[in-house]
Structure formats: structure tokens, C-alpha cells
Design goal:
With about 220 residues, this protein is of the alpha/beta class. About 45% of the residues lie in helices and about 10% in strands. Strands 1-2-3-4 form a 4-stranded parallel beta sheet, with helices on both faces. The longest helix is centred in the first third of the chain and has 25 residues.
Length: about 220
């Protein structure tokens, strides 16, 4: 299992797990995402050097963001399982319980606000993603930098069957965020847990069993 940068054992002393990853400076956050995606692709290269295919990818919460981007860029993934994750940073930034520190920063320095973000994630976002011919997003190509690391930007390039398991009472990843991601991935099946974000861990065995069954059934088809 790959540990995301600035999470768990990779957390510098004096900080909480994940605290440094979620930086309110969008250019810095873009670099954090790039770091995590490079780590994921390096892990895949290690697996390819040591194990025979097929290769499956799973991502939980923030790891789901990274898994979507990685699967879009790496065409060798046979199946993808995502749990309590989503896309569209308008929902995640302005409606999530966990991103309050980012909202405070944006409101203080005037770099973003709810109305501007909603506008950017409407027609401007759809025009931008429609212009992309592949998942290799050029640095500085988007109208705003957060579009360059939004999983929704990469979703249409995911070429493998995907199982997306959301939580009905998630206050970290809004339900609309999960639904938008599921609709943007070409071959995506959705299931729901009767939980919130953190309490979804109570169903970890069920999630793993469902993912394994999904991968096996697809492999037989």
C-alpha cells in the first residue's frame, strides 16, 4: 500500500497526517498532487518489474483523487476501485467540512470566492476539459491552476472499468462530487455505504471484498 506524501509515516514531526498536503496555495497544492501521482506511477513501475499483470488500483478518499489521475495517465491499469472520493473542486473547496482552512485563506486574500469558483467550474471548466486530447495536462494551461489537478479533468481518460463506492452521509466529500466523478468516468459502477466519510472504515472488509469481486468478474468477461 502506497502512503501519500505528508500522510501517516510520511508526516513531518509537529504536523497532523495530511495537514501539509492540503495547502491553500493552489500552485503548491498542484505540486503536492504531482508528487503523489509520480509516487503512484513509480509504485506501478516497481510492480511491473516484480509481478505479472493484471494490475489493479485502489484509492480511498484523497487517495482516490490520485488514483483517478494515475489511471488516466497510465494506460496499463486493468481495473480501478475508488472509495469515498469525488471530483470538482468547487464542491470539495466550498462544501466540504475538511477544507475550511482553504476557504478562510481565499476569503482573506481575495484570491477566490464561492461565486468565482462556481463560475470557473461551469462552462469555463467544461470548455477547458473538452479541449484536452489526452491526460497529459500542460503546466499553466488551465484558466485556474486547480483545474490541472481536479480528478474530474482526468476522468474521461480513465480507460478501465471502475467501481466507485460513496458514503451517503459524507461531509468531507459531498455526494454531488462523487456523482459527478462517476458520471465523468466512461465505465463506472456506483455503490453506496450507509455511513459518513470516517465511519466508512467500518465497512473496509466489505469494500475490499466488493473490489476483489469486481476485478475478478471483469477479468473473466
Amino acid at each position: 500500500m502506497m502512503i501519500l506524501p505528508y500522510h501517516f509515516e510520511r508526516t513531518p514531526d509537529g504536523y497532523r497526517s495530511g495537514q501539509l498536503f492540503l495547502d491553500p496555495r493552489t500552485d503548491v497544492l498542484r505540486d503536492r498532487f504531482e508528487n503523489a501521482v509520480v509516487d503512484a506511477m513509480t509504485s506501478l513501475e516497481y510492480l511491473r518489474a516484480t509481478c505479472s499483470p493484471p494490475y489493479y488500483l485502489m484509492g480511498y478518499s484523497f487517495g482516490g483523487f490520485i488514483a483517478v489521475i494515475t489511471a488516466a495517465i497510465d494506460g496499463g491499469i486493468s481495473g480501478l476501485s475508488l472509495t469515498v472520493t469525488g471530483g470538482n473542486f468547487y464542491h470539495i473547496t466550498w462544501k466540504s467540512f475538511v477544507t475550511g482552512v482553504m476557504r478562510v485563506k481565499y476569503e482573506e486574500d481575495g484570491s477566490c470566492n464561492r461565486d468565482k469558483c462556481l463560475e470557473m467550474h461551469g462552462k469555463i471548466f467544461h470548455d477547458y476539459t473538452a479541449s484536452l486530447e489526452g491526460p497529459e495536462v500542460e503546466l499553466g494551461s488551465a484558466p485556474i491552476s486547480c483545474l490541472e489537478y481536479d480528478p474530474l479533468t482526468y476522468a474521461k481518460f480513465v480507460r478501465c472499468p471502475t467501481l466507485l463506492t460513496g458514503a451517503l452521509f459524507d461531509i468531507f466529500i459531498p455526494k454531488k462530487s462523487t456523482l459527478e466523478l462517476s458520471q465523468a468516468i466512461p465505465d463506472c459502477k456506483v455503490k453506496w455505504l450507509p455511513t459518513g466519510h470516517l465511519s466508512s472504515i467500518l465497512f473496509k472488509r466489505w469494500v475490499l471484498r466488493e473490489a476483489a469481486t469486481f476485478f475478478v468478474n471483469f477479468g473473466r468477461s
